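Intended use. Records like the one below are meant for learning the mapping from a protein sequence to its folded structure. Do not use them to infer anything beyond what is encoded.
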Amino acid sequence: MTAEIQRRFTLESVREKLPYQPLLLGTVALAAGAALTLANNATREPIAAAEAHDMQMTLAQVLPSGIADNDLLQDTLELPGPQAGSTRKIHLAKKAGAITGAVFNVSERGYAGEIRLLMAVDTDGKVLGVRVLKHSETPGLGDKIEITRHPWITGFNGKSLGEPAADKWAVRKDGGIYDSFAGATITPRAVVKAVKGGLDYFATHRNAILGDPQ
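Structure written out for the chain above:
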């Protein structure tokens, strides 16, 4: 009899607690959600500011000193991207209100993944500078495309669609003028292709970028 009473007492205790479980879980979930929201709101602006600062520094690296006096982060326009339905943001470099260059992203598939670059061209379509934004290439080999690892990326400065000739826009192994890296030909080949593609894009959209009605 004692065991039966104890069993009933235990069951009654469990039944009494059951309604509180969903309420407790709901309260914990709401508290966690509120904490995450507060954390997100608190860090959003600092993160955005840090990203803007990094982008400003990268923009400055691909542009010669003194070529622009405007805010390149704000002075932008959106144009159709290279893929159907995509768009491409163009940062306009201006001096005393006149456009002196354009800066935009280009990318190509490298050995280990996409290689994203930022390149700048002047109004005549000459490369002002190129820098790597993101890549996953092999450390010690493909990472020589980074300016901090090797000056190779500066070899595009001053180049255009006419200089070198179209068939020379390639690594030396493919008959072009650009050096490749020992054991990592695919990486520089992709960068050369991306920069050449960027120049083709600028030539196609030059009037829209420069605001020329012709």
